[in-house]
Each structure stands twice: as structure tokens, then as C-alpha cells.
Specification:
With about 110 residues, the chain is an alpha+beta fold. About 45% of the residues lie in helices and about 20% in strands. The protein contains 5 helices and 4 strands, in the order ααββββααα. It has a 4-stranded antiparallel sheet with strand order 1-2-3-4. A hairpin with a 2-residue loop joins strand 2 and strand 3. The chain is globular and about 35 Å long.
């Protein structure tokens, strides 16, 4: 993807500098946790898809940035760890969430 503009790059170009920096950090962390995942725009937000299934999405509004796990089960399982984070997500927690979503998607395929 290097050197080629993607729809996700276009999305990020439209948000403010501070939000873009936060979302780029988040994007790099998700890429590291989900090698081989495809980046798409789904429901208007950048989304990582692996094996044809959405893993996580992220986005920005005028007030905040958000990480969307795309499934309530994973959120419930990690609720205590996820509580209280806005715009600055610990790398280890994001990776744990992404890997949990990948595992959840793969369990659902069986």
C-alpha cells in the first residue's frame, strides 16, 4: 500500500491534525495486530477486514476519535480494561482487542 492513496488515506485527510495523528497511531497498531487485514471504508468509517469479516473500525467526529470493535461480545469480555479510554489507547490493549476480534470471527466460521 505504500505510495498509493487509499480510501482510508482520503478519510484521514479530512480530519483535523490532532485526530489524524491519533488515528494514524491506532491504524499502525491495528496493522501490527492483524497482519494481512484489508483496509476498507465500511459504513463510512475505516475498517479492517480479515478473511472477509470486519475486525475493527475507527473514526473521528468533531469531538473525539473512536475505535469500533464491531461486536458487543468482545467489548463485554474486555469491558473492565476498555473503560475510560478516549483518543489515547494503550497499544497492548488495542492489540489484545484486535486479536480477540480475529479469534471471535474465526470461531464463528466453524
Amino acid at each position: 500500500m505504500r505510495g498509493k492513496t487509499t480510501p482510508v488515506d482520503g478519510y484521514l485527510a479530512r480530519v483535523g491534525d490532532e485526530q489524524r495523528a491519533a488515528l494514524e497511531r491506532l491504524r499502525r497498531t491495528i496493522r501490527a495486530a492483524a497482519p494481512g487485514a484489508e483496509e476498507i471504508i465500511s459504513y463510512g468509517i475505516p475498517t479492517f477486514r480479515l478473511d472477509g469479516r470486519g475486525v475493527v473500525g475507527f473514526g473521528a467526529s468533531s469531538e473525539h476519535c473512536a475505535l469500533y470493535p464491531l461486536n458487543g461480545t468482545t467489548v463485554a469480555e474486555l469491558a473492565d480494561e476498555l473503560d475510560g479510554f478516549e483518543n489515547k489507547w494503550p497499544v497492548a490493549l488495542v492489540k489484545k482487542l484486535v486479536k480477540a476480534r480475529i479469534a471471535e470471527n474465526r470461531r464463528g466460521r466453524r
